[in-house]
Amino acid sequence: MGNIRAPKFLSHPRANAKTGKSTKCKDWVLCIDDDQDFSYSIKLSLQTRGYNVARAQEVDKGYQLAFEIEPIAILLDLVMPNDGGDDLLSQIRFHPSLSHIPVFIVTGMYSSNVRDRLLASGACEVFRKPVDLDTITEAIEYHRPQA
């Protein structure tokens, strides 16, 4: 993949040039979903809870953003045009730079068989749309990587 640099508009923790101390920014959550209304509601909800939220409507863009913003969690739709969320889940779990990031599947296509398959593939949890936003926030906090 090479070295991908984050766009200048994305903030990252950086060492302060004068003090050498780290400056902390809000944590990023990445929402990969082709339903723009849903991803926008997720963005607004998580922003009120103190998170930065990046959104992608396509699997390829979401994969690229995962490297750029280094999210603490990924919310991933299962059924999307072109590529499926289950394929992206496999790519995330396979890549050493991303494999530690908790991935939550948020989908309208839900059954116990699908849920079991996705959990076995590395998803932390599978939520059925419409999903309670407090439940997503609690899951993100519970699975949050420890610094």
UniProtKB/TrEMBL annotation:
Residues 28-144 form the Response regulatory domain. Keywords: Phosphoprotein. The keyword Cell inner membrane does not apply. SUPFAM superfamilies: CheY-like. The modification 4-aspartylphosphate is found at residue 77. Transmembrane segments: none annotated. InterPro entries: Bact_response_regulator, CheY-like_superfamily, Sig_transdc_resp-reg_receiver. CDD domains: REC (cd00156). This is Response regulator receiver domain-containing protein. The lineage of its organism: Bacteria, Pseudomonadati, Planctomycetota, Planctomycetia, Pirellulales.
